[in-house]
Amino acid sequence: MSAAESFLIRFHRAHPGCTSQAYAQGRIDGGGSSYDVLADCVPDDLPEEARVLDLGCGDGHLLELLVRRGWRASQLLGVDLSAQELGLARDRAALHGARLMHGRAQELDLPDASVHAVLSHLAFMLMDQPERVLAQVTRVLAPGGVFATVVGGGPKVGDAFELFIDLLLPIVRRVGAPLPRLGDRRCRTEQGLNELLGPAAGFVGLPRIQDFAVDLGGPFEAVWLNLSTMYDLYELPADALEELRTAFAAATRGLGPEPDRVPCSMFVRCARAVRQD
Ligand SMILES: C[S@@+](CC[C@H](N)C(=O)[O-])C[C@H]1O[C@@H](n2cnc3c(N)ncnc32)[C@H](O)[C@@H]1O
User: Fold this and answer.
1) 82 lines ligand 1 (CB under 6 A)
2) Nearest CA to ligand 1 atom 20
3) Which tens digits make up the pLDDT trace of 190-249?
4) Residue 75 lies in a domain
5) For 160-195, b where at least 16 C-beta lie within 10 A, e where not — what string?
6) Does any domain span residue 122?
7) Which residue range is the domain that position 11 belongs to?
């Protein structure tokens, strides 16, 4: 197991469910969450017994969304490195009957051509050896099956998330807290996703890539809670965290038109690729 994977396991043991706490409420232009963006990538015309796999399924929010859209739990599979995240997924009544596996996306314990869609929300970009992950994805996907992933983009210029990053970096440098190095940069850029999800990897043509701004704004405490459970803050000492909170509260006071709402958005990128027949 790599240092990055050990970090992810420690982090998610401490903060299980933190991603869906932040992003389930987030809204893209036109409504819906970034989880809905992925659920919309699953074709409507799949066979009755089709199966969908969520890579890095976390606490199972996306899988439960699929149940609400009419999928049976028995058609759904999830894999995650974190036992604590999986525990939350297994606690969801809607997912009783789903196959929730503790393991690595690089080593899927599934037969060839056994699923019709593989989804991954804010997880593929964290994974080591993306080529190895994709070799597993194309192996388990049936011909014509879909891989779709939502990966993180940057902050929106001029709102709270950008201010937060600007305040965080000098504090991190000053106290010498290590920033985790997670995943492969290519998974976040358009060029990198075109390289990774192209014909050489077993997909048809180039992926369809779309960017969305997710509105994560709200009362200061809610915005702080979401941002302060970012991976980059995990190794920050308590006094440095408090310093960041104070500076962030001052910087966001009066930001945006509504007095009790801090405007905070993050870009995400959705890439959708189709496996060759
Ligand atoms: C940011 S969280 C997203 C969780 C969930 N997809 C969501 O959006 O609510 C990333 C998840 O990916 C999992 N993960 C990261 N690398 C993984 C790997 N190589 N194999 C399986 N799971 C992985 C982590 O354990 C974590 O639960």
Assistant:
1) yes
2) 104
3) 999 999 999 999 999 999 999 999 999 999 999 999 999 999 999 899 999 999 999 999
4) yes
5) bbbbbeebbeebbeeeebeebebbbebbbeeebbbe
6) yes
7) 3-153+181-218+265-274
